[in-house]
Design brief:
Elements (H helix, E strand, L loop, with lengths): L15 H13 L12 H9 L15 H8 L17 H6 L18 H36 L23 H27 L44 E2 L4 H10 L3 E7 L2 E6 L4 H9 L8 E9 L8 E9 L4 E9 L4 E2 L8 H12 L3 E2 L28 H8 L5 H13 L7 H12 L10
Parallel strand pairs: 3-6, 7-8
Antiparallel strand pairs: 1-2, 2-3, 4-5, 5-6
Length: 451
């Protein structure tokens, strides 16, 4: 018996053309199971998975970066604004010429001298400047030619960048505030000029009129917040009051009628009259003021002194503050004195006794004809006068204490130190010594009725 060959079923039969094309496609297509061992689970899963279904919008055209930029209003990520370029389309690539490669600089010769190197570098720099100028001229010519023909430059790849507002047409808040401050400063300067022109004295008749001042520029209206009416210029601080001569005062006139040149001058300061009198006429002038019919100054309220070290002949100025009780009027009389001093006014006002003693004690001014001229506040052997401006600032009482301190022996000093250590200084008073004697006698210091 002979075996007959078994033919495959018709369902599995394929044409030679289909098998060849399938084999070539399998050979040319990338294998998905490269790098995987045959028979692995991943390869088996890939074999069972089959082909993925196409997406629902596969038939619609895919969006491009230019279409997305048109929809969103932003430049695409591949545009020139982000530092990269968008690949041009096929038509643009065909139209635009291929970029010419930049020539590489020639290598310098090995045995080049410094002078040759310098000349070569200067030549390279000159060529680069010439190329740059030629390119700028060509660009300017292209712009002028395009403007004349009315043609527009081709749009940049990736679409036009979004427009930015003009800073002059839409200023920022800082620009508005700066403009407001400038306008305010100009207004202040103009107001100051007007004030200075108003204070200037009027021109004399017949003199040439000064040129009119320029009108201040109107403040620039701004929309900045807080930019209101400019503030007026700051007014200068007024000067303080100054002494004014008062030779026309009625009291001064009456004194000059009686004493003439003995009244050296009269000044008013803050509504207070001061009359300067010579030292040799101080007693007569004070008597006249005390006995004045219109304003009798019957009360010496104070007597003091002022030291002026720069005055060599009359370094002291004695001040008499007088008061009229009946007329409620005050006046100040001043007299300059030297080391010789001046006459005492205790015969005119008895209250001058202690006042002159105080001035003698603290200033060293001598008052002639004083009934008891001696120190009033300091010891009689004190050195110097403390209220003089040339008096030293050190403590002078230390010298006086050194002179008047009793001499202690070493035993007395030790006993004093022990008493102070135990707090027994109180026993040195007479009452405590008497109480100590009572305790020594054994007597009771308090009577029984107080117990």
């Amino acid at each position: 018996m002979t075996d007959e060959p078994k033919n495959p079923p018709e369902s599995s039969a394929t044409s030679p053309s289909e098998s060849d094309e399938t084999r070539r496609a399998a050979d040319t297509s990338p294998r998905a199971d490269e790098g995987q061992a045959p028979g692995s689970p991943a390869s088996a899963a890939a074999a069972d998975a089959g082909e993925l279904p196409p997406p629902p919008d596969a038939e619609q055209p895919r969006p491009t970066p230019e279409s997305q930029a048109a929809l969103t209003g932003k430049a695409p990520s591949g545009s020139s604004t982000s530092g990269t370029t968008v690949p041009a389309s096929n038509e643009e690539a065909e139209k635009s010429p291929a970029p010419t490669p930049r020539p590489k600089p020639a290598a310098p010769p090995a045995n080049e001298t410094p002078e040759e190197k310098k000349a070569r570098l200067e030549r390279i720099i000159a060529e680069a400047k010439a190329k740059k100028e030629a390119a700028a001229a060509a660009a300017a010519q292209a712009e002028s030619g395009g403007a004349g023909r009315g043609s527009e430059a081709p749009p940049p790849p990736g679409g036009k960048s979004p427009e930015v507002g003009d800073p002059l047409k839409s200023p920022s808040q800082a620009d508005l505030e700066r403009a407001a401050k400038i306008a305010e400063a100009k207004a202040r300067a103009a107001a100051a000029k007007e004030a200075a022109a108003a204070k200037s004295p009027a021109a004399a008749p017949g003199a040439e009129k000064p040129a009119p001042a320029a009108k201040p520029a109107a403040p620039v209206p701004t929309a900045a917040a807080g930019a209101g009416v400019p503030k007026p210029p700051v007014k200068k601080k007024d000067e303080g009051p100054k002494p004014v001569e008062s030779n026309d005062h009625p009291l001064v006139k009456r004194l000059r009628e009686h004493f003439g040149d003995a009244v050296e001058g009269a000044y008013t300061f803050v509504n207070q009259l001061s009359i300067h009198v010579k030292a040799e006429s101080i007693v007569e002038v004070c008597k006249a003021l005390r006995d004045d019919a219109e304003t009798p100054f019957d009360y010496l309220s104070d007597l003091t002194c002022v030291h002026w070290p720069e005055r060599e002949e009359t370094p002291f100025e004695v001040v008499y503050n007088l008061y009229s009780i009946s007329k409620n009027v005050r006046v100040r009389v001043k007299a300059a004195a030297g080391e010789a001093g001046l006459d005492s006014v205790t015969g005119v006002w008895p209250t001058a006794n202690w006042m002159e003693r105080e001035a003698y004690d603290l200033f060293g001014v001598n008052f002639n004809n004083h009934p008891d001229l001696r120190r009033l506040l300091l010891p009689k052997d004190w050195d110097g006068h403390p209220l003089r401006k040339d008096y030293p600032l050190e403590f002078m009482e230390n010298q006086w204490t050194t002179r008047h301190l009793p001499e202690f022996t070493e035993v007395q000093r030790e006993q004093l130190a022990q008493r102070r250590a135990y707090g027994l200084e109180i026993l040195q008073t007479p009452d405590e010594r008497r109480l100590r004697e009572i305790f020594r006698d054994g007597r009771d210091p308090l009577p029984k009725e107080h117990k």
